[in-house]
Amino acid sequence: MDSKDKRILELLQENALATAAEIAAEVGLTTTPCWRRIQRLERDGYIRGRVTLLDRHRLNLGVSVFVAVRTGPIATQASGWPHSGAPFRRSPK
Fold this sequence. Notes:
There is one protein chain. This protein is an all-alpha fold. The chain has helices at 3-14, 20-27, 31-43.
């Protein structure tokens, strides 16, 4: 990967919709060699895909959140929690 490849990646990251001609002009290449470089970067896994970001407010979309929680072993106290059904104990004031 040379400096032109890195610049191509920067430009695509800024604007994934930029044409090969636009990128070529910025990088100092003609369109065909620039397009071949983009294809090689995709083939070699440097570019995994192209993404379109939508404006959720303009589309009146809510927010969906997916959460996964993984816990470790639970330290039990003398009360036998969690099996005793008494998960909380009052502490002395």
